[in-house]
Amino acid sequence: MEGTAEPEESSEDLPTGLESRAERRGLEFLADFYGRELTRKPGSLAALTDLGHVLTRLGRYEEGLEIDRELAHRAPEDSNVLYNLACSLALTGHADEAFRTLERAILHGYADADHLAEDGDLASLREDPRFAALLRALRETAG
Questions:
Q1: How many CA atoms lie within 13 A of 50 on its CB side?
Q2: 3-class state of residue 126 by DSSP
Q3: How confident is the model at residue 21 (pLDDT cuts 50, 70, 90)?
Q4: What is the span of the domain harbouring residue 105?
Q5: Is 138 among the domain residues?
Q6: SS3 of 20, please?
Q7: pLDDT tops 50 at residue 85
Q8: Phi/psi zone of residue 107: left (φ > 0), alpha (ψ -120 to 50 degrees), beta?
Q9: Given a cut of 70, is residue 11 above it in pLDDT?
Q10: pLDDT average, residue stretch 78-95
Q11: Is the full-model pTM beyond 0.90?
Q12: Is residue 7 situated within a structural domain?
């Protein structure tokens, strides 16, 4: 009797952006790794940041949001931390708070209008007129 193969996984079974079961396993390994690292070094902003990114890639948006809120608490003026928090807020349906947080990110120096315009994490905000206004203002201040 030969070994049983794992059933093929359709792309519908994977969070957006994950292409294979192997990629998912790798990300789950990293989530576990960073979680253990935070147990050993609770103050590690690098491990917390990496864990947040991995959880979001896995489609575990609520957990990623918790991490991003903690990062924003620890680094309230870091424009990239605020931008990532806005992305998590958008992914979890908190549009008003996402817009307020994007404004804070820009106020604290976030300036990549092209990335903001194309970021899939912000897709839920694009139809809102505030998105176009925010993008226009960012391009005017950056350009």
A1: 16
A2: coil
A3: confident
A4: 17-142
A5: yes
A6: coil
A7: yes
A8: alpha
A9: no
A10: 98
A11: no
A12: no
Split into its structural domains, the chain has a count of 1
Cβ atoms of 65 and 55 closer than 8 Å: no
From residue 8, give the alpha-carbon distance in Å to each of 67, 84, 93: 32, 33, 31
Q: Which position has the higher pLDDT, 102 or 11?
A: 102
pLDDT tens sequence across 108-133: 999 999 999 999 999 999 999 999 99
The position carrying tokens 């209008």 is 113
Is there a domain that residue 119 lies in?
yes
CA distance 115 to 4: 44
Is there a domain that residue 5 lies in? no
Both structure tokens of 21: 């079961």
- Which two three-digit tokens encode residue 78? 């870091």
Q: For residue 122, what is the domain's CATH number?
A: 1.25.40.10
